[in-house]
Structure formats: C-alpha cells, structure tokens
Design a protein that fits this description.
single chain; globular
Length: 148
C-alpha cells in the first residue's frame, strides 16, 4: 500500500507530472516510490527527481509554479519546463558507486545519513550527480559525486 500511496502523493502534489505523457510512460516502465524535490528558486522553478525502485533509471523535471492572484479567485500556474531521463549505470555513476567513493575516503556506512540524485538542467546539457550526506562530529557534511 505504501508504494501506491507514495505515487498518489507525488501526482497530487505535482498534477503537471500526472498530465505528462512522457512521465506516465516512464513510470509505467519504471516502478518508483522514491522521489524528492528541490526548493523553488526566485523564479518559481524547482526540480522533481524520481528514481526507479531498482535504481536503473531516473526521471527529472524542472517545473514552474506560480501563484496567480485574481480579484475573485486564486489559481496556480503549473508547467513542465524541461524533463530528462537518466540511466545512472550507463553514465558510470550509480548510487552504489557514489557511496563506495565516499566510504573509501570520507565515511563509514554508519555515518551516511542520505544519498540522493541531483540534476542540473543546463542550456546545452543536463548533468546527473549524487549528493551524499555524512554525519560527523554532530554536523552533516555534504559530498557531491559527479559522473565521469
């Protein structure tokens, strides 16, 4: 039930994804319950990144969300600005490889708090990296592991 619940939460929070044929095709072929969002920037843009349950595929979308204030009612403008699919293993940067790199130099498995994919949408190309959070001396340090 939690898998279904997590997907419902995602599409209710982001109806623009629910209405996207590209996202629905990806989700049909890549069952997923793991996703996260970035904080919106000053323009109202944020990234939503969804990882397949088996870790072989990532769907990322840059969304635009803007509250439109009207005299009689408020509504939200929702749109997908860009989306991209990634295959971490084909890029040589799986989450397991990122963890191994951080564990080799910086942390033991017990010190790792979180790992998440990070997508930067560029004008010419989009990149995938991994952010690994490590707790040490009562503080959390973040490490970025880039694709080769």
């Amino acid at each position: 039930m939690s898998n279904f619940s997590n997907r419902i939460h995602l599409v209710r929070r982001y109806p623009e994804l629910a209405g996207s044929a590209a996202f629905n095709d990806w989700l049909l072929n890549n069952p997923s319950t793991t996703w996260h969002e970035t904080v919106p920037n000053d323009k109202g843009e944020l990234n939503v990144i969804i990882q397949s349950d088996d870790g072989t595929s990532i769907y990322a979308a840059r969304l635009f969300r803007d509250e439109k204030q009207g005299d009689e009612e408020s509504s939200w403008a929702h749109s997908i600005l860009i989306h991209k699919e990634f295959s971490p293993s084909e890029m040589g940067i799986s989450s397991a490889k990122a963890l191994a790199m951080v564990q080799k130099d910086e942390a033991t498995p017990r010190e790792i708090v979180a790992i998440r994919p990070v997508v930067n949408f560029g004008e010419e190309a989009s990149t995938l990296s991994w952010e690994v959070e490590v707790i040490s001396d009562k503080q959390i340090n973040k490490y970025s592991v880039l694709s080769e």
